[in-house]
Amino acid sequence: MHFVSRFKIGIFLLSLPVIMSTNVALGFERLNVGDTVFVACKNIFIHTKPSVFSERIKTLKFGESLNITGLKKLFTLPASDASSKETLEREEEDSAEQEEREIRPVPPESYTRASWLQFANGYSPASCFVTKQLMKTQTPEKVKQRVNALSAGQAKRNFSEDEKGDMTAMRGVAGKAKGAQANYEKVDKLIEENQKNLDIENFEVFRKNGRLGEFR
Amino acid sequence: MRRWRQKIVLQALITIALFVGASETKAQSLGGFLDSLNNQKPSQNGGQSQEQSQSPSQTIKNLFGDINPKSDTSDGQDKNRGGGFNLGKVVGKVFDAHHNTILGPMGRYYLGRKLSAHVLGRYATLPQSDLRTKYVRSIVLTLLAASNYAGNHKEPLVIILRDKSVINAFSAPGNFVFISTGMLDFVRNEDELAFVLAHEVAHVELDHGLNAVKSKQGTDIVKDVAGNAFPGLGGVLGNMMGYMENGFSADLEGEADRRGAELAAKAGYNARAGVNVIRRLEKSHGHQHAKGYPKDRTSIVAKVANASSQVSEKLVQIRSRRFDEIIRNK
């Protein structure tokens, strides 16, 4: 093999782990006190306490910006996350070995996230807030482009023609999900019906009778 | 710290690649390329955002395309001379895989909607106004309230698939939760049903859907590299990648079982119900559980149940009664 070709393959193989680990956390962006964040959900409220069952003070609008004053209900990222404690410790061990130095402890803030954010007037679930950079991508056109690109990658590999490929992101409790020709009309109709059938009062009765949620 | 180190290494690699032969590479591509890596700041060239500029693979193809001395030859000639290994294309694919899985709340919702549209093309469903749908939805919302994913782009959508021959439940990013009427017949009470649904909510909370896509794309790309660059080893590496894929799935399923049991317990359900339902599922779906699921599912759930506060049998029975009324129509 030509020297340059081998050299290129070498560069690629060396860079692959670095590229694959250059990961903005998939599910949970790291947000800090003082950060300005943006609402990326359609139905989200400011609550009196960090709980969805607490009183709703204000409805937030999509795209609205707020400043974080506190992080509540911190949790440790799951092992499968690229920023989990396990992954970061493994990376630190590798770095320490390569650099011939002592292993440094991984700071907890690297692998913990807040499930609720505190703002000046109350609390809201963190999963609805994104940074300014990610907010730029939160338009139907841009997200559809990315989602379609994911499917297109699979289509090239002859997966999207049957149920297998497009169902990669969906696994059941008892096996792989099966799909078919997409029916967007039906899903949109169900989404609309779902909005009409929201019943907050009955939901509270359900929890109360079953001693669930705040009534447990 | 970690990100800075990665940036330095990546920049060094790019510099080497450019030095080797990218004499015709346009310097302006570098700004967009680095922006796509750190995904933090707008592009330096012309103030365009990452979204407005070229896709990562396009930029990388620009960067790496010229380093192949045979880049001006046809595909067929490439294969004859260099084993068909196109560095720019492969690195581009890796970046595309990374870039396209950063979706945010709206992107997850659209991905879930797309996946759901495929499911709905196959199955008939119960209406959203059906008592059973409302009941299952209440359980899902109770579980979500206990999760770290209490906020969603739009209201979570729970869909009951009208198929008694299928015993399954599944979920998609953006909180789309499906359960078949076959599974509703299979579970014996609300606490068992809650565990099944909690397993699905856990997949959503832990972003397993996107992880699976990313993992699948990553392994597909490596398979491509193995097949093209090392034709003799392609099959072996391909098998290894297949093994890695299945192992990874089992890890994710184990994680969803553990987290599902935690969520069920946190919401007030008896997590031990999960042990019962998994045992029966393993009996009826034995062959399916041989691949893609951890071997010790019951012990994973039992461990969580033992650590959780006990739920009285009386409470389980109260919930069981409404389950019988709504689901069994008794």
Short characterization:
Chain A is an alpha+beta fold. Among the domains of chain A are: 25-138, no CATH class; 183-216, no CATH class. Chain A has helices at residues 3-21, 85-99, 108-111, 132-135, 140-155, 163-166, 184-196, 200-210, and strands at 36-39, 44-47, 56-60, 65-67, 70-76, 112-119, 122-125, 129-130, 171-172, 175-176.
3D structure, described in words:
- The complex is a heterodimer of chains A (216) and B (330).
- Chain A contains 8 helices and 10 strands.
- Chain A is an alpha+beta fold and 216 residues long.
- Among the domains of chain A are: 25-138, no CATH class; 183-216, no CATH class.
- Chain B has 2 domains: 2-100, no CATH class; 105-210 and 245-326, no CATH class.
- A 3-stranded mixed sheet of chain B has the order 1-3-2.
- Chain B is globular, with a radius of gyration of 25 Å.
Spell out the blueprint of helices and strands.
The complex is a heterodimer of chains A (216) and B (330).
Chain A: H1 3-21, E1 36-39, E2 44-47, E3 56-60, E4 65-67, E5 70-76, H2 85-99, H3 108-111, E6 112-119, E7 122-125, E8 129-130, H4 132-135, H5 140-155, H6 163-166, E9 171-172, E10 175-176, H7 184-196, H8 200-210
Antiparallel strand pairs in A: 1-4, 1-8, 2-3, 5-6, 6-7, 9-10
Chain B: H1 2-21, H2 28-38, H3 56-64, H4 75-82, H5 87-100, H6 104-120, H7 131-146, E1 157-161, E2 169-172, E3 176-180, H8 181-186, H9 190-205, H10 208-229, H11 234-267, H12 273-284, H13 286-289, H14 297-307, H15 313-326
Parallel strand pairs in B: 1-3
Antiparallel strand pairs in B: 2-3
Helix pairs in contact in B: 2-3, 3-5, 5-10, 7-9, 7-11, 9-11, 9-12, 10-11, 11-14, 12-14
